[in-house]
Write a structure and sequence with these properties.
This protein is mainly alpha-helical. 77% of the residues lie in helices and 0% in strands. The relative contact order is 0.08.
Amino acid sequence: MLNNIYIGGFCFLAIISILFALASIFTKKNLRAAICLCMFMLCIAGFYLMLNAEFMAAVQILIYIGGIIVILVFIIMITQTGNNTTTNCPLIQKITSAFLSIIFLLINLKIIFSNNFSKDINRISEFSYKETEVAQIGMKILSMGQDGYILPFEMISIFLLIILIGSIKIAYTSNK
């Protein structure tokens, strides 16, 4: 019974996330695309919650929804005064992006089909959540040892700094 509820919840989140991802791609309004992307990121946090990874869900909400999407909405609000629609791209840019998307899809499909997930799916019901304290997570993030995550943590901070600098640059050039 519990396994059916889990599969039903996963399917519901998967369908909703696919719909929001497609809506963010195909909408002509930039602000609407940002909000659909925000809802997609919230669905990803729901997947983390289903895996009993509450910390990762909180990080997903804080960094992606709280940081990047808010900056994206500010950029849209600052740079576009009355016309809030996307512009048409040149044909070469559409062809290049379609080509790169197909390559990315083929790489992902190769990775998915080269792994044996059937043994992992059977272990979902046996998954036992190991209690972890926030202090342990903090020490793991700031550790420089083999199991440490200081490099990805610093890369995220540099990534957010680049986004802030880019948003300031876009706002500055649009007001000239």
